[in-house]
Design brief:
Elements (H helix, E strand, L loop, with lengths): L1 E5 L7 E5 L10 H12 L3 E4 L4 E5 L7 E3 L2 H12 L4 E10 L2 E9 L2 H11 L24 E7 L2 E6 L5 E7 L2 E6 L4 E5 L2 H11 L7 E4 L1 H4 L3
Length: 218
């Protein structure tokens, strides 16, 4: 647990216990450079008794404005690491209140560090890995399903030379390849034909079902 201050910009602070789970310190050099530049012009001020960070208002000498939480946290981070330092105390007006606040100094070492960053070549963003190209899948063309007897059909996958057999099996259809090996089960002859096409590595084409046992009934 740690303490934070509420409703006491310049007066006696009121400490409220909170969980110590503040925002993570920034690791972005661009953000650090931006805050360092702002610390030089127009400048930051820190109310020591409360920890509030303010931005000097160049249009109103002796006045300051609030900063975003992110900017305030980054200023505190750079103060903690020594990249910024506190200097003289000033009397500041802010949001109807007034009191002492210390200005923020940018050491020469920090200015030189940011200057070196400006001369570095930007790190290129890593391009996403190229996805392996899949070979185009061939279509079967028209799939012929010949129902040679009730509950049994022969499947010809177009001009591919591949095929299989479909057998009714307890309310479903058992699908076998040309060698009688089980491929799977389907809900209909049409679904079985498409299953066989995918099993052989083809994109299923239109399915043409012919009931030979009805056409050539003796």
């Amino acid at each position: 647990m740690t303490g934070t201050v509420q409703d006491a910009l310049f007066g006696d602070p009121v400490t409220v216990e909170i969980d110590d789970h503040g925002p993570a310190a920034t690791q972005d050099p661009r953000e650090v450079a931006r805050i360092v530049a702002a610390a030089q012009e127009p400048g930051f001020l820190v109310v020591e008794r409360t920890g509030h960070v303010l931005r000097a208002d160049p249009a109103r000498p002796g006045c300051a404005d609030a900063v975003s939480r992110h900017d305030g946290d980054t200023v505190v981070q750079l103060l903690d690491t020594g990249h910024l330092r506190l200097r003289g105390t000033h009397h500041v007006h802010h949001n109807g209140s007034e009191g002492p606040a210390r200005s923020v100094l940018v050491p020469k070492a920090t200015r030189d560090m940011v200057s070196r960053w400006d001369h570095l070549r930007p790190i290129p963003e890593r391009a996403p890995a190229a996805k392996p190209k899949k070979a185009p899948q061939r279509s079967t063309g028209v799939i012929g399903v010949d129902v040679v007897e009730p509950g049994k059909a022969l499947v010809i996958l177009g001009t591919t030379g591949a095929g299989g057999t479909v057998l009714r099996d307890d309310g479903r259809y058992r699908v076998e390849n040309d060698h009688g090996t089980l491929v799977g089960h389907a809900s209909s002859y049409r679904a079985a034909a498409r299953l066989l096409a995918r099993y052989h590595g083809f994109t299923p084409g239109p399915v043409d079902i012919e009931h030979e046992h009805r056409t050539y009934r003796r």
